[in-house]
Every structure is written in structure tokens, then in C-alpha cells.
Amino acid sequence: MILFCYGTRPEYIKIAPVLKHMARDVKTFCTGQHTGSMVPKGDFNLFIDERHKNRLDYIVKTVMDNTIIPWEEIKLIVVQGDTTSALAIALSAFHHQVPIAHIEAGLRTYNNQDPYPEEANRAAIARVTDIHLCPTKTARENLVAERCGGFMDVVGNPVLDHLVDLKPTIGKTILITMHRRENHPRIHEWMTAIDEVARLNPKCNFLFPVHPNPIIQSAVKVLKHVVTIFPLIHDEFLQILTAGRMVITDSGGVQEEAAFLKKFCIVARETTERTEGLDEVSFLSTPDTLADKTSWLLDKPWPEDYECPYGNGKSGLRIATLLNQYQSLLGTGPSVP
């Protein structure tokens, strides 16, 4: 059995195109890091109590203490990205001596506080991974430089498989998302800056699907010129992004989606692990520089002949093809990029 593991909504969205192409004898495991109808149940499911003071610790404890995974039946564990669920599952698999495949391997900022805790999570996962499935050549180069063992290949990011049939148009909506922990201490600065940008650009429609985190929920109350709505299902979000003007976000996945859909992206962070499109189609920003960068990008044409560096929308099939023959990959060195 190959066990695909996830705990959050973005993780499931990214593994879904891979699952579609997998051979039989595949099951799924949901840790319950995110709850609600937007996170599908797996074949095996955990519940993570949210009432604990340090939720990150409790996620790790719950996952590693679980008794529902039939380790003796599992031939390969597949984790995605850099969540605390992914770290806990990978470490548990390592302790059970079950091989690990990591989708979205090799992303780095080399700053453990940005993003926190994701940077430390993905670096730790890399040390126990046997099959590294890298979204870009840069990600693979990072792993080679770190002398990580195991098979490596550049496969793109399967999140983009959801976008291949979409036809981008240029509208008036500026889509906003924000959720990262490292932005929480400055969240009121960000909200003030976002509201000022919306005030200065009344011809644009500013739309903010609000993350369920209570810190974000409280902070958006200051917005007077921005429409706030409940979180959207992924298909609805993509429809708005496809027809919009640009995006302001601290999400790495949205940064990739924006590049694929030819939308400029203001990255509300001090650094990013997705450096390939930086200063060409995506741009780092602080609250102080947000207004100027938004104004500049509203007048900027999309660069001609730009190719999205994060994948071509066929990554699910490529990854599944590799995983379906995982036994031949175990114990091999890096492949040709």
C-alpha cells in the first residue's frame, strides 16, 4: 500500500491531481490539522483538539501517537509540502523504516523564522526523504547543495494541474489573502496598508476571503474599503483569480497560481522560497511599500513570452508515474534534471 498523507486544505488540493493517476493499492490519511467540509476525509482520519496552548506540539504528538496507521502494510508514505502534519508523518515513517516520498521538496528561504514553522519543517523532512519530487530546478539544486540522499527529480507543482482549462481575462478585482504566522505581529499594519491601497484605487474591487484564524478574523474589522467574505472553495477562488487584475498574498501556492494565470503578485512577506519569478511577475512588499507597488503594477504590462517556472499543468501524471514505480527509485541517486 502507498499511503498519501495530508492535514490541511492546501495539501489535499495539491495531492488530488496525483491521486487521480495512481494505480490501485493507494489509501489516504488525514491528520485533522484543518477541519471542516473543505478538507475531505481520508481512508484513515485523526482528530486534533484545538484547545491546547501549543497547537504545533499537539499536532506532532497526536500524529506520532496514532494507532490507526497499519504500518506493516505500507510500502511508501507520501507527504506534501511543509506543514507540521507532514513533518510528524515523515518522522514517524522514518521511525517505522517506511520509505518516504516528498512532493514540493527543496523549497528554501534559509530563514527558520520566515516562514515559521514551515522552513524548519521542510528542511527536516528532506533529511529523511527517499524520493524528492521537486517543483523547480532551483528546489532540486537546494537539495543537491545540502547533500540530501535519495532520488530527486524536477516535476513541477501539481497545484497548477487545476488551472489548465482556465482562460485568464483582465478584470478589476484585486484578490487578497493573508494567513502566515510571521505576519501576525504586523497584521494591523498590513490591514491598515491594504485599506489605504483600496481607498487610493476606487476603480478596483478589493476582495478578501478571510482565513479562519481568529487573529486574522479580528484584524480585518478595520477594513473600510475592502470587501471581506468567508473562505472560498478552491474552484471559486480560481474563478476570481482568473478574471481578476492582480493578487496581494502571503501564500506560496497563490504565488504559483498567479504566475500560471498571468496575474502580477505582490508577496506580503520579507522573503520567499519561490524565487523564480521574483521581480518579474512577483514582488516582495512591506506594509510601507504596498501602495507604491500596487500603483506601479496596475500600469505594468505582463511580460511577453513569460513561461511559468512552477509547472506546466501536467505534474500530477508525472509524479504518479514515478510513484507507481517507486521500488525502482529507492536507493538511487539524483536523476538528470
Description:
With 337 residues, this protein is of the alpha/beta class. The chain folds into 2 domains: 2-161 and 313-329, 3-Layer(aba) Sandwich (Rossmann fold); 165-298, Glycogen Phosphorylase B (Rossmann fold), CATH 3.40.50.2000. It contains 12 helices and 13 strands. The strands form 2 sheets. A 7-stranded parallel sheet has the order 3-2-1-4-5-6-7, with helices on both faces. A 6-stranded parallel sheet has the order 10-9-8-11-12-13, sandwiched between helices. Helix 3 packs parallel to helix 4 and helix 6 runs parallel beside helix 10. The model has no long low-confidence stretch (mean pLDDT 94).
Explain the layout of strands and helices.
Layout: E1 2-6, H1 9-19, E2 26-30, E3 44-45, H2 55-65, E4 76-80, H3 84-95, E5 100-103, H4 118-128, E6 131-134, H5 137-145, E7 151-154, E8 173-177, H6 187-200, E9 205-209, H7 214-219, E10 227-229, H8 234-243, E11 246-249, H9 252-260, E12 264-267, E13 282-284, H10 290-298, H11 315-324, H12 326-329
Parallel strand pairs: 1-2, 1-4, 2-3, 4-5, 5-6, 6-7, 8-9, 8-11, 9-10, 11-12, 12-13
Helix pairs in contact: 1-11, 2-3, 3-4, 6-10
